[in-house]
Design goal:
By secondary structure, the protein is α+β, with helices and mostly antiparallel strands. The protein has three domains: 31 residues, no CATH class; 206 residues, Jelly Rolls; 87 residues, Jelly Rolls. The chain contains 15 helices and 22 strands. The strands form three sheets. Strands 1, 4, 5, 15, 16, 17, 18, 19, 20, 21 and 22 form an eleven-stranded antiparallel β-sheet that branches. Strands 2, 3, 6, 8, 9, 10, 11, 12 and 14 form a nine-stranded antiparallel β-sheet that branches. A two-stranded antiparallel ribbon has the order 7-13. The longest helix is centred in the middle third of the chain and has 16 residues. The two termini are 38 Å apart. 43% of the residues are buried.
């Protein structure tokens, strides 16, 4: 009999001690166990052959590995290793949402894990994109369902009815594009080589400021092939000449090398270039236009797969739907840095209700205790090794690249050893 079941049996008398545990008690014990995860990797073309394997202690892969998903998203759920074999995490949670997620989280998020935790490795730029808010996601998902658009159709915009916000935490130097520059700044950059193909929208931007962003971006993304080619040719001429001394010009040429002819290569002129140092993070609420350019990071997001693209992609771009989703924020991008929390972890707080990210580094202390009010968590070890000592459960040895599912009903546990553990969890309401 496993230690946890033996402990319950001994506390409930001779009948149970003989192994006659009632099924409800066994189920409760199982639901409280911390379990190892086996995760799904995504081999998108923009990924790296070395970054994720190196983090997991593996040799380089034959194909690009772009993302490793840790969570219960139905398109690629992690699998938990139980005594009865491997079980998809979404199915495991569905057996007892209150025990695995906690009563409050189960009630707030319809019995589902509300976040998806990823390792993201970008060797080439991802598409320029934004994610919808709640009302747009729900309406768009229902509309496409009524129209009979298959969930895997290439021109489908909404994969589910949920809003999506996210954050990216850099493990290596990480470059991204995010949020609109100030309108006058955009106008100044485009004026360097002329923008006659969007002259009317350009004047609106100059005249109306922030209110001119929508017609300018809409016009830019809707250019016909001939006008787009002429505009990009002049932008390339500028980037190779006067623009060669600027960060924007150099990045424009880098983007053109991977996406020739795509109007998205102009993004450095209207979006901020953001360089995150290891340990820094950035939060993206719904409606934020952005693209990840390069680097290895931890991405934590609401568990939705809704993506509305705007460039740097061969996939479907629905300009009106993207325009409807954008929040038109302009101005500086806030860089997030973790702060020490009372539980001893470094915590990065955002406005998201679905997730928060924290980090526990025991290299100096050699151990730490996690209190029983930890809530549901997914743990990822990115450095070192340690033992998780859990009451009523065999000690779990954790090394670099290992990940674990910690149910809300799990007791307090100790971390013994020198390691770095990241935790994705749900903030308290």
């Amino acid at each position: 009999m496993p230690p946890a079941e033996r402990s319950i049996a001994e506390n409930r008398g001779p009948a149970l001690a003989t192994g006659l545990l009632d099924r409800k008690a066994i189920a409760a014990v199982n639901a409280a166990k911390i379990l190892r995860l086996d995760n799904v990797r995504r081999d998108y073309a923009w990924g790296s052959r070395t970054a994720i394997p190196a983090l997991l202690g593996e040799p380089p892969s034959d194909a690009p590995q772009a993302e490793l998903w840790m969570g219960a998203h139905p398109r690629a759920p992690s699998r938990v290793r139980t005594e009865d074999g491997e079980v998809p995490l979404d199915a495991w949670i569905a057996r007892d949402p209150e025990a695995t997620l906690g009563g409050d989280v189960a009630a707030r998020f319809e019995g589902k894990l509300p976040f998806l935790f990823k390792i993201l490795a970008a060797e080439q730029p991802l598409s320029i994109q934004a994610h919808p808010g709640a009302s747009l996601a729900r309406a768009g998902f229902e509309r496409e369902n009524r129209a009979g658009v298959a969930l895997d159709a290439p021109d489908r915009c909404y994969a589910d009815p949920y809003a999506k916000c996210e954050m990216i935490h850099a493990l290596t130097p990480f470059r991204a594009l995010n949020r609109f520059r100030a309108p006058e700044e955009i106008a100044e950059r485009f004026a360097c080589f002329g923008a006659s193909e969007v002259a009317r929208e350009f004047e609106a931007l100059r005249r109306d400021g922030k209110a001119g962003l929508e017609p300018f971006i809409g016009g830019l993304l809707s250019l016909d092939a001939a006008s787009r080619g002429e505009l990009l040719a002049r932008a390339r001429w500028w980037a190779e000449g006067d623009g060669a001394a600027t960060e924007e010009g150099r990045l424009l040429l880098e983007l053109e090398a991977t996406h020739p002819g795509d109007v998205g290569i102009l993004a450095p002129l209207f979006l901020h270039i953001v360089d995150l140092a290891p340990g820094e993070a950035m939060f993206l609420p719904p409606g934020e236009l952005h693209a990840y350019v390069s680097g290895l990071g931890l991405e934590l997001m609401a568990s939705s797969d809704n993506v509305l693209r705007g460039g740097l992609t061969s996939k479907h771009v629905d300009v009106p739907e993207l325009i409807a989703a954008l929040a038109w924020r302009a101005g500086p991008v806030e860089i997030l840095r973790a702060e020490l929390a009372p539980d001893g972890r470094m915590r990065c707080e955002t406005e998201a209700a679905e997730f928060e990210l924290s980090c526990l580094d025991t290299h100096e202390s050699g151990d730490a205790r996690i209190a029983p009010d930890h809530g549901v968590e997914i743990l990822l070890c990115t450095d070192g090794a340690c033992d998780l000592v859990v009451a009523g459960q065999e000690t779990l040895h954790v090394a670099r690249g290992d990940s674990l599912f910690v149910p809300a009903s799990a007791p307090d546990y100790r971390v013994e050893g020198r390691a770095v553990l990241y935790a994705a969890s749900v903030p308290k309401a």
